[in-house]
Fold this sequence. Notes:
Blueprint: H1 2-27, E1 35-38, E2 41-44, E3 49-52, E4 55-57, H2 61-72, E5 78-79, H3 80-87, H4 98-110, E6 116-119, E7 123-126
Antiparallel strand pairs: 1-2, 2-3, 3-4, 5-7, 6-7
Helix pairs in contact: 2-4
Amino acid sequence: MEWGRRLLGEAIRLVELVARIRALGRRSTVPVRPLLECGDVSLDSNRRVAHRGGRRLELSAKEFTVLECLLASRGRVVSSEELLERGWDEFVDPFTTAVKTMIRRLRVKLGDPSIIHTAREGGYWIGEL
C-alpha cells in the first residue's frame, strides 16, 4: 500500500514539473522588440519606460509587462491565461481576477481614448485586429 502512495505522489510531481516546463517555454516564445508603438503609446523595453502622448507613464513592473505583451502582440488577441503566464509567477491562481484588475488599472493610467480592447472570448488586444 505504501508503495502505491509513493508512486502516485511521484506521478503527480512529474505532471506538475512538465506543466511548469511548458509554461516556461511559452513565456520565451515571443521575442520583444526594444521599441514598441501603437498610436501615441510607446514603450522602450531596454530602458523600461512607457509614454502616451509625450507623457511618461508611471507603471508597476507587472503593468509594464502586461502592456509590453499586448504591444508585442499587436493585432492579436492575447488570452488572460497568456498574460498570467507572462506577468505572474507559476504559483498564481488561474481563476484569479488579477488580469482583469491589471487591465483596468492600465486603462486608467493610459487615459482616454482607451487603446486596450476586450475580446468576448476572454482576452485583450491593442491596435487593429
